[in-house]
Design brief:
single chain, 638 residues, alpha/beta, Rossmann fold, 4 domains, 6-stranded mixed sheet, 20 strands
Length: 638
Amino acid sequence: MTPLLQAENISKSYGSLTIFTGISLVISQGEKVALVARNGEGKTTLLNILSGKDTADSGDVTSRRNLNIGYLEQEPELDDRLTVIGQVFASGGELTGLIGEYEQALATGNRQQIDILTSRMDALQAWDRETRAKQILTELDITAFDKPVGQLSGGQRKRVALARVLIEEPDLLILDEPTNHLDLDMTEWVENYLSRTNMTLLMVTHDRYFLDRVCNRIIELDNNTIFSYAGNYSYYIEKRTERLENVQAATDRAKNLLRRELEWMRSTPKARTGKSKSRIDAFYDLKDKATASQDQGEVKIRAGSRRLGNKVLELRHISKSFDEERVIGDFSYTFGRFEKVGIIGKNGTGKSTFLNMVTGALRPDTGSIEKGQTVRFGYFRQEGISFDEKQKVIDAVREIAEVVKMSDGSVLSSSQFLNHFLFPPNRQHDYIEKLSGGEKRRLYLVTVLMRNPNFLILDEPTNDLDIETLNVLEDYLATAGICLLVVSHDRFFLDKISDHIFVFEGGGVIRDFPGNYTQFREYLRVKDKEKPVTRNGGRQTGQKAVSGSPGREKPGSGKLEAGSPAKQKLSFKEKRELEKLEKEIEELEKEKAYIEEALSGGKLSPGELQEYSQKHAELNAALDVKSDRWLELSEIGS
């Protein structure tokens, strides 16, 4: 594969805080790479350096000549004076610059300029690009194209910035948490778009379904070391587990050798002559190996909570409106003990309003909410809390409690509880101002959980948390004897922790679905398939379908001719093609598995590594084409 971007031996520090030292990586054309690491390991810093927004203290970053990089930052910098459509086309380049000028001329009503720019738009065939931009903005729920950017919410700004980089179609697209502030439908649209685009991708995201379905290589930054895995997230988890097990086995062997060496080192000084210096040096090397920490925060603890009585929470015919717009309409529900409920719905459908009413922060317009006497809420809010930046992490936690009681009666000190949530002792004594944004969110989570609530409410808890923290949180919640209400756009998280989900459909309507998010999506898919088809091939409900890349229709989505029945059966030739495709896909999957095993084995020469990587990309492309055709034929014959 052709390298697009390469970092060699780069390091970065901020004052006395070292972010990383001496790391190297290569991004090649056609790859879709995810960067995975704990919060605080330097993911965003590394993306800033690779994009050119920041520079390394040492080492080199080189790129292909005239490489066009598009970068979506966690907190995008936008021009508040521009309109939405003007901002989208303000990123540079002849074509996008021209459309930006045209949109600005429209906004100001400059007829002379509009006429001149219209001719140039015709000459460069720029109208398709403008139409496509508006389509992408609409998919991201931005329809007020002439609205000033300064009037947008934080989530809307992020989506405008995402539209801007997608429309530009750069050679290398770098995305820092692209799914933050997107609802579930939008997340799935972006996932589908990126899985089909030919752009080379480098992204940081905690969305594990997104990683699994989009990426073909995972780069892990762990303890200042880069580990590369050629495959998706599922493959990464499998191989990472093997790596940690191998390291642990080596650590165990070193400990056994260390016991024997200790006997020698503790012998009389006479036994250690000058000739033994090499053995003494080897002992200290061995000691380092034996004490190597592989603690990944996976120690199981039994979550504690206050006793929860039989009566938990009753909502009776509650409703809420703002400026005559109904947000919650006549909703009733009685919570049982230890229920775990996920909440989904588009932005603005009343999810946060519902949580505020449940906790008593907001009163319903009609109806009543009755809380059981034993209920103690814990509320993790989207906006978080403000910490004293000059305070140490451990001191902020000790202000809440010195110890935390577990469900088995055991007690953890505040330091032990912090350690479980991935704050090792040395990090606990850092000042809060030195923490990354994700680490501050994790600290906020600790302050909520250590109060031992028995009814926990989480409003978008996965934003800015790394995957490892999410794993710890999921395990913690699985053992907790609590009620749980969680709003999240993280599908993997919802599937793992929710017993059923409340679906906020808008207009005040809330429906209770008896299953997790994936089951709900499958229910919608089957339900949509069963709906009668109109004569023009569309669904009678007129629901917006999730679309893929521009210019590419979903298999079997072509319109029916008036009065012509839909094709129900495969021809003999198509049946043979389907059978052949199944065999070919199976063979390609086997070959891909072999290539991935070789790439992860660490035994290939640089030349072989490039050859195998190229083959892996070719196999992925072939599988995509054949799988699409297989799906198309399968749908016809189903």
